[in-house]
Design brief:
By secondary structure, this protein is an alpha/beta fold. The protein is about 40% helix and about 15% strand. The protein folds into two domains: about 5-195 and about 235-260, Rossmann fold; about 200-230 and about 265-320 and about 340-355, no CATH class. It contains twelve helices and 14 strands. The strands form four sheets. A seven-stranded parallel beta sheet has the order 3-2-1-4-5-7-11, with helices on both faces. The mean pLDDT is about 95. The structure holds NADP nicotinamide-adenine-dinucleotide phosphate (NAP).
């Protein structure tokens, strides 16, 4: 990795914390973390609480993606534009239930502001910096309806492939802005994870935001699990973070990566049965119908939101395209990343963690 400084957004988030750790390990660069704060002291304190280790290379930058100049003074903005030669843009408003107008200021305008920072760097006569943009495989949730059965790294998302969720529409619009910048010659790589779930070794996750955790919680509340041929696209948070950092070190400009693997729908849910929950297997479409009918229950509502974002209607299960990630995982293996299996022992660790965190009532 080149020797200049790094700017990381979203360092306090589920994926961002892990990215922060990987960046410290994989480089010797200072890592400037843009945190949504108005002053240095609270930002530094927040960073200290989430940081993987005490490091003088971690620098808190109080700011805001929704504010002009990222909420920085003109001097601090220019200082950042001058010193930072890689931007890892992980921050987002990740709220599948929010309207487009709520998510776009962070997800679309925030991405535009980071592209403007790179332009400012060029104006200041510095060599080009690279943006590593964390998008989402969710920008393809309704690709089947547009006639796309298999989505490869080269497939371009549109508003039609992103489905009805304001969040995913804003991620698709952000990708469009990134594509336009690529056309202008900006140096960018794009990373599209699927569902990001718990650590591969410990199962530790973010119980409130893990989308798979939402589906598992609904299964416990409904006393049933979905079975069938469907798949969910997912990857563990540590593999996604390591993948983004390691792949970005050697990837040519314009590379796109799909850090997500298909897991048969029943595999994570059967872990609930092994943990001792008495749950009835139900064909996938029928299970989603139950989610729809019980959407008003607090334990089911988050699963309803996740499913409607994926095109759920009252009588159909979400129909997801195949996310082809063959090229990404081949590239990952070539840089020494061997993604651990997403198998029964892994999902047992995930369920045990959700129980320990209080996200699932014990069986
Ligand atoms: N989670 C998934 O399953 C998933 C799947 C596919 C793609 N992704 C993508 O992966 C990335 C990380 O997701 P995550 O689940 O880790 O999200 P998360 O835990 O909700 O973290 C979001 C981060 O963005 C920051 N942020 C929000 N608004 C901001 C603003 N106005 N200015 C500066 N920072 C702001 C948050 O800071 P605060 O601490 O101040 O709130 C937080 O650090 C996102 O780009 C998301 O779209 C996530």
């Amino acid at each position: 990795m080149s020797s200049g400084a790094i700017l990381l957004t979203g360092a306090t988030g589920f994926l961002g914390r892990r990215l922060c750790r990987e960046l410290l390990v994989a480089s010797e660069a200072d890592v400037h973390c843009l945190l949504r704060d108005s002053d240095t002291a609270p930002a530094s304190e927040r960073l200290r609480r989430v940081a993987p280790a005490r490091s003088r290379r971690l620098i808190a930058v109080p700011g805001d993606l929704t504010a002009p100049l990222l909420g920085l003074t003109p001097d601090r903005y220019d200082e950042l534009a001058t010193t930072v030669n890689a931007v890892y843009h992980c921050a987002a408003s990740v709220n599948l239930a929010a309207a487009y107008g709520r998510t776009a200021p962070v997800n679309v305008s925030g991405t535009e502001r980071l592209l403007t920072l790179l332009d400012r760097r060029a104006e200041l006569g510095r060599p080009p910096a690279r943006l590593h943009f964390v998008s989402s495989a969710g920008v393809f949730v309704t690709a089947l309806a547009t006639g796309t059965i298999t989505v490869s790294e080269g497939t371009v998302p549109t508003r039609a492939t992103a489905g009805p969720s304001g969040y995913l529409l804003s991620k698709a619009d952000a990708e469009q802005r990134v594509d336009q910048a690529l056309d202008r010659g900006t140096d960018i790589t794009i990373h599209r994870p699927g569902i990001i779930t718990g650590d591969s070794a410990t199962g530790a996750t973010s119980p409130d935001t893990d989308l798979l955790g939402c589906l598992l919680r609904a299964a416990v509340a409904l006393h049933s699990i979905p079975v069938g041929p469907g798949h969910l696209p997912m990857e563990t948070v540590d593999t996604v973070a390591r993948g983004i950092v390691r792949l970005s070190q050697t990837a040519p400009r314009g590379s796109v990566f799909h850090l997500t693997r298909p897991v048969r729908i029943d595999v994570p849910f059967i872990a609930l049965q092994r943990a001792g929950y008495p749950l009835l297997p139900v064909p996938e479409a029928g299970w989603y119908h139950q989610v729809w009918q019980h959407a008003w229950e607090p334990e089911v509502y988050p699963a309803y939101v996740v499913s409607t974002a994926s095109g759920l209607t009252e009588h159909t299960a979400p129909r997801l395209p195949v996310i082809d990630s063959t090229a990404t995982y081949a590239a990952a293996r070539s840089v020494g990343i061997d993604a651990p299996p997403l198998d029964a022992p892994y999902f047992d660790r995930l369920v045990a963690n959700l129980i320990a965190a209080g996200a699932l009532l014990p069986p």
